[in-house]
Amino acid sequence: MEWTGLQSTYSYTERDVALYALGIGACASNAVDQDELKYVYHEDGQQFIKVLPTFAALLTLESLPNGFDLPGLQYDPRLLLHGQQYIELYKPFPSSCHIQNKVSLAGLHDKGKAAILEIETKSYEKESGDLLCMNRTTVYLRGAGGFSKSSKPFSYSNYPPNQTPAALLYRLSGDYNPLHSDPMFAKVAGFSQPILHGLCTLGFAVRAIIKSICKGDSDRIKSITGRFLLHVYPGETLVTEMWLEGSRVIYRTLVKERKRTVLSGSVGLSGLNSSL
Prior knowledge:
Blueprint lengths: L5 E7 L1 H10 L56 E10 L7 E14 L3 E12 L5 E12 L23 H5 L12 H6 L9 H15 L8 E8 L9 E8 L2 E8 L4 E10 L7
Antiparallel strand pairs: 1-3, 2-5, 2-6, 3-4, 4-5, 6-9, 7-8, 8-9
């Protein structure tokens, strides 16, 4: 199966940056939290606000507006599940920017009754041409397998208070998949109600790492891996546990009410003080 890839653009403003931060819980428990206020407000003007590292995942939203259109691959988009996200960060994001994306097929794996698809997106600052980040998105396509021999998918992975409207708030950052807002759509996909975006859960987890390990300095984050293990319902309480191993944080996020792990992965760091 061949796919030539595509290019797309994505633009964001200071308002988008602040809305995203609020969507993953920044300042939710304390509106003047000095560690997180910088993501939504700056005394010298909004052009100086900081961009959270997981904002990078939003840059892929415009890359595939009509789903994954691959010749010969048939699937029901209602049965698509986001399996894993890997992000590499090469330089801090400006508070507003015009982005040029280059998208390529990184892997397609037949798992019998399903297929695993890996899409790689490199995002460049349009004006300077600088490479800002790379996203590798892994999706699980139920009912789309059976087209070839099975293969092992590529993987980078090594093994706060609840917010009931979290999915509705997060979708304002651009991910309007009805799985996260439409009760009937969610039931067709096999869930009792709309579920939280996996990237929203990832945002909550990385925020916890920035606050606990990085002492509020998000520029220390250089890479992020998140494997989505189980769905989260809006209103459930997320608890992130983390372990520092050299320049890497191993973490897992659990739903307190069900005592189940919903996300696991690692975060690569730079510039950590040896006393941490």
